[in-house]
Amino acid sequence: MFWIRSYEKSSSCYSCCEENRSLFAVSRAGGTSTLCPSQRKAASAAVVVCSAGSAGRTGVGEKTITNGRPAAVEVTVKETRKGPSGPEVDSRSTAGGVVEDVYGEDLATEDQLITPWAVSVASGYSLLRDPHHNKGLAFTQKERDAYYLQGLLPPACVTQELQEKKVMHMLRQYQVPLQRYMALMDLQERNERLFYKLLMDNVEELLPIVYTPTVGEACQKWGSIYRRPQGLYISLREKGRILDVLKNWPERNIQVIVVTDGERILGLGDLGCQGMGIPVGKLALYTALGGVRPSACLPVMIDVGTNNEKLLNDEFYIGLRQKRANGQEYAELMDEFMTAVKQNYGEKVLIQFEDFANHNAFELLAKYRRTHLVFNDDIQGTASVVLAGLVAALKLVGGTLAEHTFLFLGAGEAGTGIAELIALEMSRQTKAPLEETRKKIWLVDSKGLIVDSRKESLQHFKKPWAHEHEHLKGLLDAVKAIKPTVLIGSSGAGKTFTKEVIEAMTSFNEKPVIFALSNPTSQSECTAEEAYQWSKARAIFASGSPFDPVECHGQTFVPGQANNAYIFPGFGLGLVISGAIRVHDDMLLAASEALARQVTQENFDKGLIYPPFSNIRKISAHIAAEVAAKAYELGLATRLPRPANLVKYAESCMYSPNYRSYR
């Protein structure tokens, strides 16, 4: 048996350890330790002690040499102290003859500093605590023998399928959705592959738990349910050293970053640092639905404070306790972050902006879309998925986009983003100028219909939608005056599509198209049941959050969900597999068309204008292929040569959650 008696780490060791952060990464294959240069030099002087217990057995905590190699290397710290008579006290002595003080912690008082030495061994107890490689009871008998798992697991060996069945049975026992959410997050931290297999195989049941609407409640209570870090928290305190913070993340090959500042979480407002649940949830869907590797995903929270007084006074709040920074201070922090990301991860890392307030969302997208690979899901992702639903709905209501009139309730990121993409698609189809196609689209904000007489007081992103018309204050008045064929809600204000509004839409449309997109469910402009009942079962309905099937006038209607999860996972995968360096609007149009093509006649017969989520991986592969094809066409792809079959290539690049067999 070998004991390597550790040494005090010299001050010269810190610089080289920056490049080799693992202090002792022990290799099972060779039984050796990977040390930084200073550590190797010091280790040459270390004392090597060979010992054997009685009857040829090794001592407590020791491993024998098997097959000509050490089964493990035990690294111990020997600290000494002098008693009254001056003898050395070896730190290998145990407290009460039971627990070995390996790191010398018992020899230090509570106010003395100790070094958190770590040994990384991909076997034994540490393997069961590694979510990337842990398989739980699915480790085979051979793997248990080879990786020192005997006795650490019960005797039973089960399949991943049985594990999945057991977890789903457990989840269904919970009555509270937040409990299911917390159980799933715990599973992700214990067994990554089982978590993603569970989500992929039960996507329609678990999507409302992992994402909207349950993730909204999770964010509201994030400070209370927080258990362990799931991403990077970058606050104003890190200003000037964000690059160093990024280097603290253990993974180096990052392909997708989802970042928020928590100012506009779903329809819930400013949740500050507790908005981290959104990047975590989005990236879980990037992997489960789009096949991007989990290790290539990085959730980021930019904490600049919060204006939410309730959170500032909450003892469990985990963010900065200050009012939100804005102006130059905010801009400088974001600029440092964007620069550091590009420097650390390269030109082709996708940065997805998520749930920023209107005034920052538009500015950030406009500022960085020409220098970085950026995508705003609230502006662009929502627009793409809604356009796909409208294109599919035309097969039910007839006509082209240009033959319809659109009225929006809500003129923020989502509303103006959707409107712009619809206008772009109409311009592409009709060859008419964009300024002309915009005139088919009307927006209502908190002050009423956006018209030319209000132009001077409008925010810049609303001005393109100010048309000649008398000013109308209410939505109902606007519906009666404009007579739209399509009504879209993105206001974040629940119950605003009233019975009078729906009945007015039905009075001049045989099949009114009604999209109530606001999240979570409590903020939806109307429910599916209300839309079908008030329209006498004539509405073509879709919502942002899920609703159950509705029985109305002797028919069963399955409401469509205009969920961004249809678009952004496949969209991101397409950017990754093509090595794209910029996002172009034509890529968004390509993604919309690809999604619309996945709606079958069987779906239309049920009143659906979106395909079922059960086919989401196939849908994502087709979207990825179209996005990648557009990247190659526009000269924005760097991964050459172009694959002959982009759909098959996208499928081959997708992460599989099935367990791997270990040597």
UniProtKB/TrEMBL annotation:
The keyword Glycoprotein does not apply. A divalent metal cation binds at residues 354-355, 378. It catalyses: oxaloacetate + H(+) = pyruvate + CO2. Residues 188-369 form the Malic enzyme N-terminal domain. It comes from Spirodela intermedia (Intermediate duckweed). This is Malic enzyme. Keywords: Metal-binding, NADP, Oxidoreductase. The active site is at residues 211, 282. Divalent metal cations. Prefers magnesium or manganese. Belongs to the malic enzymes family. CDD domains: NAD_bind_1_malic_enz. Its cofactor is Mg(2+); Mn(2+). Gene3D superfamilies: Malic enzyme, N-terminal domain, NAD(P)-binding Rossmann-like Domain. Pathway: Photosynthesis; C4 acid pathway. It comes from the Eukaryota. (S)-malate binds at residues 264, 519, 563. GO terms for cellular component: chloroplast. GO terms for molecular function: malate dehydrogenase (decarboxylating) (NADP+) activity; metal ion binding; NAD binding. Residues 379-632 form the Malic enzyme NAD-binding domain. GO terms for biological process: malate metabolic process.
